[in-house]
Design a protein that fits this description.
CATH architecture: Alpha-Beta Barrel
Shape: globular
Number of helices: 17
Structural class: alpha/beta
Radius of gyration: 20 Å
Order of helices and strands: HHHHEEEEHEHEHEHHHHHEHEHEHEHHE
CATH class: Alpha Beta
Strand order of the largest sheet: 4-11-10-9-8-7-6-5
Bound molecules: flavin mononucleotide, the ligand CCCCCCC(=O)C(=O)O
Distance between the termini: 38 Å
Mean pLDDT: 96
Low-confidence stretches: none
C-alpha cells in the first residue's frame, strides 16, 4: 500500500536525479518565496489579517502548546489515514479550505481550476469558494473523482442563494459549507493601506456572473455597466444570518450542510439541534476578528460538545503535517489547509499546490509512523498533551 510518507523518497531520489520540481519545503520558506512571487497588493491581501494580526499569529503559535506522546514497539509500518464523513470514504484527513480570489494568485488567472486539479491528483477534497474566478461547474469538473464541497457566502438575495446551492448540488458537490463569520468584512489594515479588495474589482465573481438570478436584480440586466454590476454584487454579498435562518438553509438542499466559523461549544450544539450535518471550527485564519482566541484552543471543547453527533472540521493556523496530527489528536475529523496552498499556487500552479499537499500529508504520515500511531482512531484515543509553552 502506498503511504503518503513516500513523498520523502521521491524528493530525495528526484533530487539525486534532478527530476523533482524544486519547491521550498517548510511553510516559512514557501511563504517567503510566495511573497516575492506575487504582486505586493495581492500578497498583502493573502497574508493580511484583522487588526494588528494578533489572532492570526496566535492561531499558528498555539499549536506549540500541544504535543503528541510517542509510543514504541508498535510497528506502525502501514498507516491508515482514511476518513469517513458525510457518507464518503476520503483517502486523507486533510482538505483544501475555501479561498476566494484564487485567480489573482495564479499566473493564468485560473487558480480555482489549478487548485481543483491538484485536489484531483492528490485525492485531497476541496472546499470551493463562492468567490471564484471560475464557475463552480467547471471547478467540480476539474476535481474528477475527488469530492468537492461548495462554500456558500449567502447573499441577501434569497433566490440567488437558492440558485447557487441548487447549481452546486446539480453539478456534483458533496456538501455545502456555509461561512458564518464574513457577512461583513473585518478591519484589515493591510488592505486598507493599499485600498485593495480584489473581488470588488470583479476578480472573483464568476459564480454570480454565470447566474441569471444575479442579473435579475440589476437595472439593465446583463447589459448593465461593469460598475453597476460590481455595486450590485457589493450590495447583496453579505447576509447576517441568524438561528432563525437555519430552517431556510436546510430547505435549500438534500446535501450535508456544514457551518463554518463555529468556535463556541454552545453554538455547535445549537447548530446540530437546528439540523445541520457538520461543524467547521475556524476563525477565518484571523482575517475577520482580531482579539479572539486561537482556533485550536477551542477545538476540543467543540469536539466534546458535538459528542460524536457529526463530523468536526477544523482550520486556522495549520502550517505543517505536525499541526494536522495535533488537530486530529484533539478530535478533528478532518483538517483544512489554507494559506500554505495559496503559496504553492503562487509558486507553481497545480504543481505547487500538489507539492504543498503531499508535503503536509507526508509529514503527518511519517510523524504517525515514528510516534507509533497506525490509524486515526488510535491517535484520537491517545489525544494531544497540553504542554503549556508556545502561543
Ligand atoms: C486569501 C484568502 C481568501 C479566503 N477566502 C475565503 C472564502 O472565500 N471563503 C471562506 O469561507 N473562507 C475564506 N478564507 C478563509 C479560509 O477558508 C481559512 O479559514 C483560513 O485561511 C484559515 O487560516 P490559515 O490559512 O491562516 O490557516 C480565505 C482565506 C484567505 C487566506
Ligand atoms: C466582502 C468580504 C469579502 C471576503 C472575501 C473572501 C474572504 O473570505 C477573505 O477572507 O478574504
Amino acid at each position: 500500500m502506498a503511504q503518503f510518507g513516500d513523498y520523502q523518497n521521491e524528493i530525495y531520489f528526484g533530487g539525486l536525479q534532478g527530476t523533482t520540481p524544486r519547491f521550498p519545503i517548510t511553510s516559512a520558506d514557501l511563504e517567503r518565496a510566495a511573497s516575492a512571487a506575487l504582486p505586493p497588493s495581492v500578497w498583502s491581501y493573502v497574508a493580511g489579517g484583522a487588526g494588528d494580526e494578533h489572532t492570526q499569529r496566535a492561531n499558528a503559535a498555539a499549536f506549540g502548546r500541544y504535543g503528541i506522546v510517542p509510543r514504541m514497539l508498535v510497528g506502525a509500518t502501514q498507516r491508515d489515514l482514511t476518513v469517513d464523513m458525510f457518507g464518503l470514504r476520503l483517502p486523507t484527513p486533510v482538505f483544501l479550505a475555501p479561498v476566494g480570489v484564487l485567480g489573482i494568485c495564479a499566473q493564468d488567472g485560473h487558480g480555482d481550476l489549478a487548485t481543483a486539479r491538484a485536489a484531483a491528483q492528490t485525492g485531497v477534497p476541496m472546499v470551493a469558494s463562492t468567490l471564484s474566478e471560475d464557475p463552480l461547474e467547471s471547478v467540480v469538473g476539474a476535481l474528477g473523482e475527488t469530492p468537492g464541497f461548495f462554500q456558500l457566502y449567502t447573499p441577501t438575495d434569497r433566490d440567488l442563494a437558492a440558485s447557487l446551492v441548487t447549481r452546486a448540488e446539480a453539478s456534483g458537490f458533496a456538501g455545502i459549507v456555509v461561512t458564518l463569520d464574513t457577512w461583513i468584512t473585518g478591519w484589515r489594515p493591510r488592505d486598507l493601506a493599499t485600498a485593495n479588495f480584489p473581488q470588488l474589482r470583479g476578480a472573483a465573481l464568476a459564480n454570480y456572473l454565470s447566474d441569471p438570478h444575479f442579473f435579475a436584480g440589476i437595472d439593465g440586466g446583463r447589459e448593465a455597466k461593469p460598475v453597476a454590476i460590481i455595486q450590485h454584487w457589493a450590495s447583496i454579498f453579505g447576509n447576517p444570518l441568524t438561528w432563525n435562518d437555519l430552517p431556510w438553509l436546510r430547505s435549500l438542499t438534500e446535501l450535508p450542510i456544514i457551518l463554518k466559523g463555529i468556535v463556541h461549544p454552545d453554538d455547535a450544539r445549537r447548530a446540530l439541534d437546528g439540523g445541520v450535518d457538520g461543524i467547521y471550527v475556524s476563525n477565518h485564519g484571523g482575517r475577520q476578528a482580531n482579539g479572539g482566541i486561537a482556533a485550536i484552543d477551542m477545538l476540543s471543547d467543540v469536539v466534546d460538545a458535538v459528542a460524536e453527533r457529526a463530523p468536526v472540521l477544523f482550520d486556522s493556523g495549520v502550517r505543517s503535517g505536525t499541526d494536522v496530527v495535533k488537530a486530529l489528536a484533539l478530535g478533528a475529523t478532518a483538517v483544512g489547509v489554507g494559506r500554505p496552498y495559496v503559496h504553492g499556487l503562487a509558486l507553481g500552479g497545480t504543481a505547487g499546490v500538489t507539492h504543498v499537499l503531499r508535503s503536509v500529508l507526508a509529514e503527518a504520515d511519517l510523524l504517525m509512523a515514528v510516534d507509533g500511531y497506525a490509524d486515526l482512531a488510535t491517535l484520537r484515543e491517545a489525544g494531544a498533551r497540553r504542554v503549556g509553552a508556545g502561543g
